[in-house]
Sequence to fold (189 residues):
Amino acid sequence: MNDSEKAFWTVPNLLSLLRIALVPLFVWCFFSAGPHARVWAVAVFLTAGATDVVDGWIARHFHQISLAGRILDPLADKLMVFAALACLMLDGTLPLWLVLLYFAKELAQGICSFALMRRTKDMPPSNILGKAGTFFFYVTIVTLTLFHPSAPVQNTLLTLSYATILAAFLSYLLRAMRQGQIQHPDSEE
Fold:
């Protein structure tokens, strides 16, 4: 096994891969006909959230931060949140445009990340705004899945979630632009 393969097969990256594998299990639980299907879906969703916290802690404390991890970790988060939002849209809890807004933001961020990675061979790590956005989406999704809150509560949760991820996206774009300029100061692109 070469060094790049060793850098990939770390505990944090394996936990991120587990989170990706939990996405279809969440969807299956969400739509299953069992009496506690939504509770099981939330359990899967929260397990994914817990592994996100654990993999970040392990990566930082045991110096296992890698480029692969900086790609897999947010990818796992985004896939789980998108799947949950799509499930909530399909069951009539959320309108399609809210799910499409999340998808459009993630698509734009993914394109920017890919362009930055091609240019600088690196990717900005997640920041506190991105983590806050993920946290608010987790709270919102759990609340909408289990409790079907009133419209004002639902709107407040969704507004906090979307405002935070928009702020995270703008922060990410600014950092990416700065990183691109720092890495290539003579570039005219």
Q: What stands out?
A: The CA atoms of residues 12 and 60 lie 10 Å apart. The chain is about 80% helix and 0% strand. The chain has a mean pLDDT of 85. The two ends are 38 Å apart (CA to CA).
